[in-house]
Amino acid sequence: MAAQNSLCVIASYTRKNNAQLFRSNHNILSMRDHIYIRSITSSNNINKCSQLLKSNKRSYVQSRSSTRECVAGDIELKHAILLKHVRNQLIAKAIDHLKLDDIFMVDAIYRVGLGYLFKDEIKLILERRYLQFIRKDFIEHLNLYEVSLCFRILRQNGFHVSKDVFKPFKGKDDKFDEKHKKDIRGMMELYEASLLRIKGENILDEAENFSSQILEDTITYLDDNDESRMIRYTLENPQRKTLTSCIKESNNIVQELAEVECKMVQPIRTMELNQISRWWNETGLGQDLCRARNQPLKWYIWPMVALPNPAFSQQRVDLTKVVSLIYVIDDVFDIYGTLDEVTLFTKAVNRWDIKAIEELPYYMRSSFKVLYEVTNEIAGKVSKKHGFNPMDSLRSSWATLCEAFLVEAKWFASGHVPTTDEYLKNGIVSSGIQVFLVHLFFLLGDGSTKEKARVINDNQGIVFLVSKILRLSDDLQCVLQDENQDGHDGSFVKCLLVEHGDISVEIATERVIQMISDAWKCLNKECLSGNPFSEDFTKGSINVARLVPLVYSYSDNNSFPLLHDIS
């Protein structure tokens, strides 16, 4: 959810000339030397901010860029004031235990992507509301919209809320009461809530079917107005499974804070994109592998969505390097290498010896060298900051990925069509998500000791399920777009059609859609409280799964049309 606010920055880039931003000889934008863009998380800092602003203004007079710097200082002060007002409003609304104004405001904050600014306040509100929400006498006084909203907000923050809170909205026939059909807002929120279900929660399966059918029927008799467009958008872009949001918040002060926060964050994003672009150009991979993908903006989206908090700037830059190498090495296996050559590359990664570079074909050497340097650099940073060197885990993740790529290369070379089980088991690894999440885990400092480092290996549920969702969604998208790829990629749908010769593409597609839905149910369960991972890692993993629709809207001219539609 915090990622949604960050997407407004990317949207602004995609409306500009991205080709210029990422061409090899572009100029790196200069950043201010003495003003630090930061989120002010305490109202006590307002006076400090004001004093800092005055001090900065005195120095700016002597600077050539004084006007721009003062404007930035004014934005920082405005941000601090708005932050204080929103926090005070949030606390004030939490006083009334009967009204749900605090939950409504939490929802508004999440929708504009500012949850990371109010983590402590939101945690206290949700803990108190959870204790109320498990009481039957409290729920009896709430309507469908309120119950659905509370359920969704609590579930997505890891609280074990019972599915039975929806029983009061069923009729005597044990089906959802038809009297709720006219409550469009309630239907939309019921649909959103149903997507937080886990396996075996039949009442929430029924809730999805009931609400989606009512909303689809409602669209047919509504004119093409704001309400019908909002219903359609909710059905196509539910919050649990997507990152985009077209809802303009009715809470004006929250909306205003979001707009100011976006301005505050934009220089950080600009700096990060410049660092990434400079690094990418310096690697020379775009020139050495001219047929490989050259998409720095797309690669940056992954870590930006996983870690939207501005405080994680360096982690985003490092993770973008990881993502770029996943794509590049995939293309080395898929487009460039012969079977013998990619076998050599895989052996070199397993050996993890820079001397192995001499045994590789010329075009592979730069890829291996950059992989070796980036991984060692990240391991060194983690060791210095958190006291544990994760080199073995990072290196192992890359070796496992290359082994999976090699399996696919062997399948293609031999003409072997794997079974669906074979394909999916290997495809989950070759999605690259495991590599990304392992690096995310250590960059967050979650594996700061040898014992803690084992958590990512001993608890593969979240990693496995996010990887499965991505793999199946990727294959499904290829079918839906009738995509003809230049490389050697297979498809789960293709394997399904070969394995079950009597089914149609449509039936196979429906089966994959159901498998993705089932994977989401399992992921929802894994992300409930009690899982061994930090909140940042858990929400980052969920955001990666939610990113899939946005990534598939990426176009050849380095832009995201989906963002244009909502911004």
Describe what this molecule looks like in 3D.
The chain has 567 residues and is mostly helical. 68% of the residues lie in helices and 0% in strands. Among the domains are: 89 residues, Terpene synthase, N-terminal domain (Glycosyltransferase, Alpha/alpha barrel); 283 residues, Farnesyl Diphosphate Synthase (Orthogonal Bundle).
CATH topology of the domain at 284-566: Farnesyl Diphosphate Synthase
The fraction of residues assigned to DSSP E strands is: under 5%
The SSE order reads HHHHHHHHHHHHHHHHHHHHHHHHHHHH
Major sheet, described briefly? none
Q: Mean pLDDT score, rounded? A: 85
CATH superfamily of the domain at 284-566: Farnesyl Diphosphate Synthase
Which bin fits the share of residues in helices? 55-70%
Radius of gyration, in Å, reads 25 Å
Give me the CATH architecture of the domain at 284-566, please: Orthogonal Bundle
Helix segment tally: 28
How many strands appear in the DSSP assignment? 0
**General form:** globular
End-to-end Cα distance, whole Å, is 16 Å
Label the structural class: mainly alpha
CATH hierarchy, class of the domain at 284-566: Mainly Alpha
Low-confidence stretches: 13-64, 483-488, 562-567
